[in-house]
Amino acid sequence: MNPVETGRGLAVVTGASTGIGYELAKCAAQEGYDLAIAADEPRIQEAAMRLKEFGVEVQAMQVDLATRDGVRRFCEGIAALGRPIDLLMANAGVGLGHGFLDEDLDEAQRVVDTNITGTIRLVHDLGNRMRTRGQGRILFTGSIAGFMPGAFQAVYNGTKAFINSFSFALRNELKATGVTVTCLMPGPTDTEFFERADLMDTSVGQGSKDDPAYVAKLGFKAMMDGEGDVVAGWKNKIMSAAANVTPAGMLAEQHRKMAEPGSGNAN
User: Fold this and answer.
1) One-letter-per-residue 3-state SS of 203-266
2) What is the CATH number of the domain that holds 124?
3) Structural domain count, the chain
């Protein structure tokens, strides 16, 4: 990344090549923020070209944030810009379908390394810079999946339960520092997530989904307003509220009906 000083604020967005992450980056660009974006695929450069059309500077890095080295390289790249970080949107995440014992263990571990380990490493580094400055806003992309024991998505839902909980804890820890923390909790969203997670033959994979642009706008506004959390969509609000009073075994069975392979073929 090359040092650029424009007088504008800087927003950092991970998982920004497509989906919610790209739309979050677009929200920031539309508000006049320069961008430092990352994803683990070459399409991050294509995303950068589109985002530059908003008249902002965009620094893009293809880097694997599931690895210690990938997080280090991205953080060093941001440091090389020599600019304070105004917004951090920790959105990078991957999913994985099928029963846990039928999954490739390395793939399951990658879900943990991306969604949890890489995320907390990144936020520990950049969050410390924000706290030292006494200013900044952090947005985590959690999920309503974090409220449900995820039968046939056990590892993924577990990681999102961690992120949801972690964000609320970190928000409390930073409440007197000038740094705010917000958790965006979407439901099923129309992104490449379900294809990548091998969930296309499931009820949830074939069901209706929210527009990622709509989800991102809600999350971005909540972050800018300093809110603690936002659930995207009224159906998801009802589901998340119901999850708080429904026995875990019943929630797991409900999730099984949505995520079990072949469930999308049922009448």
Assistant:
1) HHHHCCCECHHHHHHHHHHHHHCCCCEEECCHHHHHHHHHHCCCCHHHHHHHHHHHHCCCHHHC
2) 3.40.50.720
3) 1
The single residue listed with the structure tokens 């099984």 is 256
Residue 266 confidence (pLDDT) = 47
5 domain-assigned: no
Q: Distance (Å, rounded) from C-alpha 35 to C-alpha 4?
A: 11
pLDDT value at residue 63: 97
Q: Which two tokens stand for residue 10?
A: 């800087």
Contact partners, residue 5, CB within 8 Å, separation at least 6: 82, 83
Residue range(s) defining the domain that contains residue 138:
10-265
pTM summary value: 0.89
User: What are the backbone dihedrals phi and psi of residue 27, each rounded to the nearest 5 degrees, phi first?
Assistant: -60, -45
Out of 37-41, 71-75, 209-213, least confident range:
209-213
